Amino acid sequence: MSCRYNVVSLRDINKFIIPHFKIYPPLGQRVKSIDFYLWSQIISLLNDKKHLTPNGIIQIVYLKSILNQVLSTKLKLDFSKLIFFR
Prior knowledge:
The protein has 86 residues and is mainly alpha-helical. Helix content is 59%, strand content 0%. The longest helix has 18 residues, at 30-47.
């Protein structure tokens, strides 16, 4: 059984999505749990308004580079001075 839920705000992520996955962690590969943790860290940075600072953006891009191990070519070029985890 599956369910689809549309998220339209950061508030919804904090109120519904994160609590749900803390109670019902992703099943399957351990990687899914790690990705959820990394994604939660990005949400935490957004909650703290860190995305409005250069260092905050760098932290978010770094976490995104680890998340699912996929980063667009444009972001790689825009943040080429960073050393990304692979």
